[in-house]
């Protein structure tokens, strides 16, 4: 409750082989208005499954390279590219290049979380499409290995 200052090196991180690692600044609480994460992807890792959701989301790539699949198209991104996704914009990020890519991610929480994970050929080329459309996150991510919580590991952030 209330304001705080917290360094990304000091927060809990969520990690998986398929989805890289990202911060959990919120801890056990869920902020009501705005979600905020830093996601680190190695080449070939995707931040999630191709999806669209109720709230606006914005992304700033601060290091490295990635492929953005957005509205069924591929876009190559590099450091300092900004992506704005109005509500219900289809998207997913896939790490590319020679090393890690670091993305600052924000999203509206107004109105609650609602998402749809559609089948998409372009996203499927990157292993980031569901096999059958769903609005259930647990179904969309069922084929992925488990996530683990850990402390920050040296080298995750530039």
Q: What are the key terms here?
A:
2 helices, 158 residues, seven-stranded antiparallel beta sheet, mainly beta, three-stranded antiparallel beta sheet, 12 strands, globular
Structure in words:
It is a single chain. Strand 1 (12-16) and strand 2 form a beta hairpin. It is globular, with a radius of gyration of 15 Å. The longest helix has 4 residues, at 121-124. By secondary structure, it is mainly beta. It contains two helices and twelve strands; from the N terminus they run E-E-E-E-E-E-E-E-E-E-E-H-H-E. It has helices spanning 121-124, 137-140; strands at residues 12-16, 20-24, 34-41, 52-53, 57-63, 65-70, 73-78, 82-85, 91-96, 101-108, 115-116, 148-150.
Quick structural summary:
The chain has 158 residues and is mainly beta. The chain has 2 helices and 12 strands.
Explain the layout of strands and helices:
Layout: E1 12-16, E2 20-24, E3 34-41, E4 52-53, E5 57-63, E6 65-70, E7 73-78, E8 82-85, E9 91-96, E10 101-108, E11 115-116, H1 121-124, H2 137-140, E12 148-150
Antiparallel strand pairs: 1-2, 1-12, 2-3, 3-10, 4-11, 5-8, 5-10, 6-7, 6-9
Radius of gyration: 15 Å
Largest sheet: 7 strands, antiparallel
Largest sheet, spatial ordering of strands: 8-5-10-3-2-1-12
Structural class label: mainly beta
- Report mean pLDDT, rounded to a whole number: 94
Order of helices and strands: EEEEEEEEEEEHHE
The proportion of residues forming helix, as a percent range, comes to under 10%
Total count of helical runs of at least 4 residues: 2
* Poorly predicted spans: none
* Shape, per Cα inertia axes: globular
User: In total, how many beta strands?
Assistant: 12
Strand content: 35-45%
- End-to-end span in angstroms? 30 Å
